[in-house]
Specification:
alpha/beta; 7 strands; single chain; binds inosinic acid; 32% helix; seven-stranded mixed β-sheet; 194 residues
């Protein structure tokens, strides 16, 4: 079985990715690898931040690893919060304050189109590869549900009538940006490793 370090401290992301990746690959979190680090996200693209995270962990461990960076891109806000999604309302990375800022900026604007975009950066045998996953949808007028994390309570994916925060993990996986990116990662690993 291949072992990969997942360069994140976000337990929600670990749970989501483990639920998709199955038993063919062993995912180890930073904590499980004994690494205590708050990896910087200094760049202005998801691609560059994802690469920074995986390269940081690769430098520290010299092992195969991957990271992911995700942004919520809202059409009427010219792609905001985008790469700044985690710190939209400030460095506290507070989910509720981020949602409040988003709903306040959108106001009653009828154009509520948005998408989540995930970029995974994999380092395998010292080489980097990237995989993208996109989920289109809209921003709800109000918060709905209390599952999940981040902007889940205000994001309704296309084809659904409820928000991500009203869905089980399995339901969210049917639509999710992260699930799509991970599926591409798994396909690549299967092809490379077989
Ligand atoms: P990062 O990839 O950890 O920088 O994520 C940026 C921010 O996007 C997170 O802090 C969350 O607020 C938000 N985010 C990322 N993925 C999701 C998701 O699947 N649902 C809701 N919010 C998300």
């Amino acid at each position: 079985m291949s072992t990969l370090i997942f360069a994140t401290n976000n337990q929600h992301k670990v749970d989501e990715i483990r639920s998709v990746i199955g038993s063919s690959f062993d995912i180890i979190t930073l904590k499980e690898a004994g690494i205590d680090i708050d990896i910087p996200e200094p760049h202005d693209t998801l691609e560059a931040n994802a690469a920074e995270k995986s390269q940081t962990i690769h430098r520290l461990t010299n092992q195969d690893c991957f990271s992911e960076d995700t942004g919520l891109e809202v059409e009427a806000l010219q792609g905001e919060p985008g790469v700044k999604s985690a710190r939209y309302a400030g460095d506290g990375r507070d989910f509720q304050q981020n949602i409040d800022k988003l709903l306040q900026k959108l106001g009653s604007n009828p154009d509520r189109k948005a998408r989540f975009r995930t970029v995974i950066s994999l380092i395998l045998d010292h080489k980097e590869y990237q995989f993208e996953g996109i989920c289109t949808g809209k921003i709800a007028e109000d918060q709905q549900g209390n599952k999940g994390f981040g902007y889940d309570p205000v994001f309704i994916p296309d084809g659904a009538t409820k928000s991500f925060a009203e869905m089980s993990l399995e339901e969210k996986n049917q639509y999710s940006h992260r699930q799509k990116a991970v599926t591409r990662l798994i396909e690549f690993l299967r092809n490379t490793r077989s």
